[in-house]
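REQUEST ID: PR-0412
SUBMITTED BY: lab tech R.K.
PRIORITY: routine
TASK: structure prediction, single protein chain
INPUT:
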Amino acid sequence: MSHKKRIIKADRILDPASRRDESGVLYISGGKLVAPFEEAQADEVLEFGKDCWVCPGLIDSMAMLCEPGMSARETIETGTQAAAAGGFTSLINMPGNQPPTDEVHRLIWIQQRIAEKALVNVFPTATISKGMEGELLAPIGSLHRAGAVALTDHSRCLQNNELMRRALEYASMFDVPILDHCRDASLSAGGVMNEGYWSTILGLRGWPSIAEEAMVSRNALLAELTGARVHCLQVTSKGSIRIIREAKERGVPVTAGTTVNHLMLDDENLKGYDSIFKVSPPLRSWADVEVLRKAVQEGVVDFIVSDHTPYREFEKEVEFDDAPFGAPGLETALGGSLTALVHEAGMQPLDFVSLWTNQPAAYFKLDRGTLSEGAPADITVIDPEMSWEVDPEAFCSKSKISPFAGRALKGKAICTIVGGETVWQDEK
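STATUS: complete
OUTPUT:
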């Protein structure tokens, strides 16, 4: 927390929580946004012109920081540096480290590490099942009371429907959400890319969209039965959107996210057998991309995630079937989503910013995502018109690879402020 008094003057302030879109001034003291004070009292005055958006700090709801056990790929320190460079002031950290976060003492260790090393806010999650093995429930109540903001087996979808039902019934007692990576393991067994035209041409085993849709449907039905909050982490297909839409129309407490990868890329990108495009769920067809973009604009998809899953280059440089699923995303998520949704699909700026701020903040019950007085002074300044070419070698992340390498994106964070302190600023 910064004890400096700062003033930010902006030609365009975007605060979706209050539907604010106007020029104005923000006042910061003690790490919080406060009532106006005299400019002479300020330690610093920052001014941002009409080409910039001054927004609440961005929140990424799905990032993997890899500690403990996988620090060769990423650490809390390097991952939060990447987050700051990408414009994110808060992360929801996934529990799939080694060992998984399935016990209170492991969650406490991560919280201590966050306090020591994190450059931005990090809110940890914990597993649904012991060891993420899908056989026995983790101590859900104890983990939530210890600070887990959600429960998820991350990249492993809970296959046992009875266990999922019990997890939801238990979680509903604490009003803690269950996050599910929707994948029927039997329907997708051996699949390494989307089942369709390109998997046939390339001779690669397909992962059909029905494998996702079956579990999205399961989750919607169980949410309706139990009244518990279920969030489908990454929906990617037309069928999943239809199921989510219909469930929401019935008032079922099911929500959905999608990734920047799935809003920007399709399965044709895999035609060169480049494993950097091997992600989970797999990239779908362009028809699915178009439906996803529309669903985001219509509110069927509730927020977007980076799905930051870092790997070192040598881990991906193997035969396609053997390469791991995933790619880093924190430093390209904002530019990719701005390009796809605002510049290409015509989404309104206030609605776009809401996807990354007040909507995830409300879902995870965080005191963030707004520029109202009394809120933490977490602020992201965006230049929505800045064109830049993705150079993974310049990443703060340990993972120097990207499915967007060499691609021109439009829109970038130029300043990231956490608790009133500038943690990253574009040198240009």
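NOTES: The two ends are 26 Å apart (CA to CA).
REVIEWED BY: pending
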